[in-house]
Design goal:
By secondary structure, the chain is mostly beta strands. The chain is 11% helix and 39% strand. The protein is built from three helices and 17 strands. Strands 4, 5, 6 and 7 form a four-stranded antiparallel β-sheet that branches.
Length: 204
């Protein structure tokens, strides 16, 4: 799939990540200069009109979840988080109608999908109308925010990665504590309840 997104709508960090993706896929760098990310000839093309900036795009099913600092996707209100189908049309339906006003109250910088569950990290302190400090877990089936998953880092989460084999999630960012325990910019938590993995303490 390709995305037709003007470079002006992407943060510098997102542009770098997309450039790396283009290189990994063996696609022509000339496309970046035009703000177009081409796919193989047989694949359909997606065009997204974004009011704001896109920080992260991850696949989900046949579509994509988009995070960033934006107020609209394709002319419809969305607050920093959106779900689109393979054509680029909004696919979040009625259950994410609340994302128009109560998505994330600040920039979404990282996303990870596990099945029908979405992990989101960023600058926010509220997600889906629920108080969440910098990281949240959301159902992509009904839009509900998981009540048990509250690691509560004390700073921005800028990166997420799944350890699916252990049912755990890596967090990276500017925080110095998670779940009340000292962690310097990196931590690992349980994917179900958000409890800190005590034995994983990376050194610097």
């Amino acid at each position: 799939m390709s995305f037709r997104i003007r470079l002006g709508t992407l943060s510098a960090f997102a542009q770098v990540r997309l450039a790396v993706l283009v290189l990994l896929l063996g696609l022509p760098l000339a496309a970046l200069a035009q703000g177009i990310y081409p796919a193989p000839a047989a694949a359909p093309e997606i065009e997204l009109r974004v009011t704001g900036t896109v920080e992260v795009i991850v696949p989900y099913g046949t579509g994509y979840v988009i995070g960033g600092n934006f107020t609209q996707i394709n002319g419809s209100d969305r607050r920093n988080i959106a779900l689109v189908d393979a054509s680029g049309a909004l696919a979040d339906g009625g259950f994410v109608a609340g994302w128009a006003t109560a998505g994330a109250d600040a920039t979404v910088r990282a996303l990870a999908v596990s099945g029908d569950e979405l992990f989101a990290g960023g600058d926010f302190t509220s997600f889906g109308g629920q108080s969440r400090s910098f990281v949240a877990k959301v159902s992509l089936l009904d839009g509900s925010v998981d009540a048990d998953f509250q690691p509560a880092p004390n700073g921005v989460v800028r990166a997420l990665a799944l350890d699916a084999g252990r049912g755990q999630v890596f967090l990276g960012g500017t925080f110095t504590a998670v779940d009340g325990s000292a962690r310097d910019r990196a931590a690992k938590v349980d994917a179900d309840d958000g409890i800190l993995v005590a034995g994983w303490i990376p050194g610097y």
